[in-house]
């Protein structure tokens, strides 16, 4: 049944990086099974837990997501690419 197996808790440092270390401790102490995070917060979370999986935002430049600078690899090198050469 929908909604019975998922609890979403949202935390924010309100963009104030000086709050991030304490916020990371609060998030980890809440005992989640998984943490989604972005930006600098990923670094702070990883500093306080090695047992809770942390999934960075895939569009986050700071963790090499889609917003990251392009690599030298072209789509022509990717056999799974759906784009024609």
Secondary-structure map:
Layout (H helix, E strand, L loop, with lengths): L19 H10 L5 E3 L2 H9 L5 E3 L29
Parallel strand pairs: 1-2
Helix pairs in contact: 1-2
Explain this structure.
Helix 2 (40-48) links the parallel strand 1 and strand 2 (54-56). The protein is globular and about 35 Å long. It is 22% helix and 7% strand. A two-stranded parallel sheet has the order 1-2. The longest helix has 10 residues, at 20-29. Helix 1 crosses helix 2 (40-48). The protein has a domain at 18-65. It has 85 residues and is α+β, with helices and mostly antiparallel strands. The protein has helices at 20-29, 40-48, and strands at residues 35-37, 54-56.
Total strand segments = 2
End-to-end gap? 45 Å
Give the radius of gyration. Answer: 17 Å
What portion of residues belong to β-strands? Answer: 5-15%
Mean pLDDT: 79
* Mass-distribution shape: globular
Largest sheet properties: 2 strands, parallel
If helices are DSSP runs of H or I spanning 4 or more residues, what is the number of helices? 2
Question: Secondary-structure element sequence?
Answer: HEHE
Task: Provide key terms for this protein.
about 80 residues, alpha+beta, globular
How would you summarize what this structure contains?
With 85 residues, this protein is an alpha+beta fold. 22% of the residues lie in helices and 7% in strands.
């Amino acid at each position: 049944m929908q909604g019975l197996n998922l609890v979403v808790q949202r935390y924010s440092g309100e963009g104030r990086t000086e709050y991030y270390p304490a916020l990371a401790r609060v998030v980890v102490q809440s005992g989640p099974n998984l943490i989604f995070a972005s930006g600098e917060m990923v670094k702070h979370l990883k500093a306080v837990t090695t047992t809770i999986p942390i999934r960075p935002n895939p569009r986050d430049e700071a963790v090499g997501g889609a917003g990251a600078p392009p690599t030298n690899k072209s789509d022509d090198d990717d056999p799974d690419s759906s784009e024609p050469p």
